[in-house]
Every structure is written in C-alpha cells, then in structure tokens.
Amino acid sequence: MENRTFTMVKPEAVQQGNTGSILKMIEENGFRIVALKKVQLTTARAGLFYEVHKERPFYGELVDYMSSGPIVAVILEKENAVADFRALIGATDPADAEDGTIRKLFAESKSKNAVHGSDSDENAQLESDFHFNIEEQF
Ligand code: UDP
Ligand code: MG
Q1: Which residues are part of the catalytic machinery?
Q2: 4-136 CATH
Q3: pLDDT at 2
C-alpha cells in the first residue's frame, strides 16, 4: 500500500466547519479519496487507535479529545502518499508548521491540530484497516 495514506479531520476542525475546506485542499494537492466516513470514536476505540502513544504524557488528553466529537476518517491515494501528505499537513505544532500547510491554516494548538496523517506505509495500512473494511474502499 505504498501509494496510500490515512487521515482524520479531528474534532475541533469538524466542529468549526472546516471539513470541506480541508478535503478541498487535499484533493487540489493531488490526493484521491479512496474511502471516507464521519464517525465518533468511543474512548476505547480512540485509545486503541493511539495505543503507540500510551506511555506518552499527553495520551489521556489525546484520547479524551479524539473521542469528544465526530471525526472524518479518510483513506487517500497518491504516489508517495505518506511523505507528501505529511508535507501538506505540516508540523505537529501549528506554531512550527510552514505557511500554506493544513495545520498552519486550520489547527488550534499542538493537541487540537486539525488533522492526523500516517507516519509510515505500515501504519497507513493498519490505520486504514482500523476504520474501513474492503467494501468501503474504492
Ligand atoms: N500531541 C499532543 N501533545 C504533544 C504531541 C502530540 O497533544 O506534545 C497529540 C497531537 O494531537 C498529535 C498526536 O498527539 O497529532 C499524535 O502525536 P504525534 O507525535 O504522532 O504527532 P503527528 O504525527 O500527529 O504530527
Ligand atoms: Mg503521528
């Protein structure tokens, strides 16, 4: 799955009505939408999704935040998808994100940072499978 990545529009961006603007930027940057759904994660599901971070000090806050309202989960396709998407979203902390990146434009803070982006092909696959079955991918 080297040409795919996984993203979520996070709760504050959905709540602020920025889903459409973010998806538009994503499509305009050459990514094709393979799968898409709006869903609210339970704390248990959010905890499982972010299990790799469970030893980090922000884990509890992250799980509470990511289950606080609906998110929009999306699988994307493009050549070099993982790296190109990380470049499009910018640094974790919007204060460090480059101008023109999604986080620079839409993120509120380092924790409420508008979007998720997979960090490897392997995690893109795991995260896509976490949210979508094969009949939901086109
Ligand atoms: N996060 C946070 N505080 C931190 C670092 C991360 O609240 O000091 C949150 C933030 O929402 C981030 C997520 O945890 O997007 C996952 O962290 P990661 O280091 O994987 O950043 P990302 O890959 O999202 O840029
Ligand atoms: Mg990450």
Answers
A1: 116
A2: 3.30.70.141
A3: 81
